[in-house]
Design goal:
alpha+beta; 7-stranded mixed β-sheet
């Protein structure tokens, strides 16, 4: 239905050819435009139906913006606590909770414990899509989150760390896309592995989010944008070796 950039297995990405990168960005932009233009058809085809699917995202290009009246709630995280309050659509909460479970499972595999905090850059905001001013952002419906990274507390002393995990990572640390997504050495490479494994798992769970944007998408080098728009677009990995 939309542009899907499914990553191939592996952790070490080669340096992409600038010409290839430019072509990918142009293709991504074209595919995004096509997906948004076809929104009514995609909304009808989306399975299962989501409560916000029938709300029009079309808005005037200029002038005051009046966002739809949807039921918003304050959410602080169920399986992982959030560092900042998340104001979201009530139906989006279960998607966030499912995402937290994915992150927790990957973290336990790699670090022996789930994250203690989820760091986000924002949820509800009544605004247009900056690149598409005639379309309402999913943030304007409380139907999106910009995920920046995770914080980890000290590991429990009564539980052994996963085999091979550096002892230093038994202490507190933080992971951020801006710092760690492309890292290939030291502890940072392990954090890159966590972020990329988390992203692959989340992409595979089509029951959680429909739109997943990340470092390969313009303006998203430091966060994952995750939403449940009436179309599917996935653009997270810079190349097919990620």
């Amino acid at each position: 239905m939309g542009f899907t950039n499914a990553p191939a297995p592996g952790l070490h990405a080669s340096v992409p050819d600038p010409r290839t990168t430019t072509r990918r960005r142009l293709l991504a932009l074209a595919a995004t435009t096509a997906a948004i233009a076809a929104a009514p058809r995609l909304a009808a085809a989306a399975e299962p139906h989501y409560p916000l699917d029938d709300i029009s995202r079309r808005v005037p290009r200029r002038g005051p913006l009046r966002c739809p009246d949807v039921e918003l709630v304050n959410y602080r995280g169920k399986h992982i606590r959030y560092t900042g309050l998340a104001r979201v659509f009530v139906g989006f909460v279960e998607r966030l909770a499912a995402m937290e479970q994915v992150a927790a499972a990957v973290a336990v595999e790699i670090y022996g414990r789930p994250p203690s905090r989820l760091q986000h850059m924002g949820t509800y905001a009544c605004r247009r899509i900056s690149a598409y001013p005639t379309w309402l952002s999913e943030h304007a419906l409380g139907n999106a989150i910009d995920l920046e990274g995770f914080n980890f507390a000290r590991a429990p002393r009564d539980k052994p760390l996963p085999e091979g995990l550096p002892k230093a990572l038994g202490g507190p640390f933080s992971i951020r896309l801006a710092r760690h997504w492309k890292s290939k050495q030291g502890y940072a490479a392990l954090h890159a592995r966590f972020l990329r494994t988390f992203a692959r798992r989340l992409i595979g769970r089509k029951d959680i989010f429909r739109v997943l944007l990340g470092p390969s998408y313009a303006g998203h080098h430091n966060h994952f944008h995750l939403d449940v728009a009436p179309w599917r677009i996935v653009d997270v990995f810079e190349d097919q070796t990620a």
